[in-house]
Queue: 2 jobs
Job 1
Amino acid sequence: QVQLVESGGGLVQPGGSLRLSCAASGFTFSSYAMKWYRQAPGRERELVARISSFGGGTNYGDSVKGRFTISRDNAKNTVYLQMSSLKPEETAVYYCNLWRERDYWGQGTQVTVSS
């Protein structure tokens, strides 16, 4: 069965950087686009970034362009989100997402941006 396991969250100061990882299993990872979403308290889940199946195409939410980078290693069945210049308002739970006939989600990893 599909499993997505996020890691790498934590507490970081404003302006700092963090790299999230999502380890995938239960499907042919290299055949599917992958996404990162985030959800802050009291807010709707929002799309942060998307990467095509072989990594040749990426898309970002307007608020993170130029600061976040999504990448993948198909040999390791892992997708990454490198985040820099983090802002307090980006405190949220970050989720890895697969769409394959339906949405699949990981358990999320908490990112807290605070001094």
Job 2
Amino acid sequence: QVQLVESGGGLVQPGGSLRLSCVASGFTFMRYIMKWYRQAPGKEREFVASITGVGGITTLAAPVKVLFTISRDNAKNTVYLQMNSLKPEDTAVYYCYAAGTNYWGQGSQVTVSS
């Protein structure tokens, strides 16, 4: 049974940091590009970041390119999203996704507010 389980979301003040984790099971994790998406209220889901299975080549969306970092630990079947200098516009539900599949996590709420 395939599972992607996110954790690490929460409420943070502007300028703060959070690290999201996504633990995968039920498939060969290292073979897949892993991605993070987010969906803000009333908006479409948008791409945030991706990382290749081997080699760890990363791609980040322009709005987060300098402030967010994606990484993975294939030994732990886990992908991470480090988010720094958070802004209110980063408020969204964040999802991890295994590229080319129908495997999505359940989502982790991130709220940036004072």
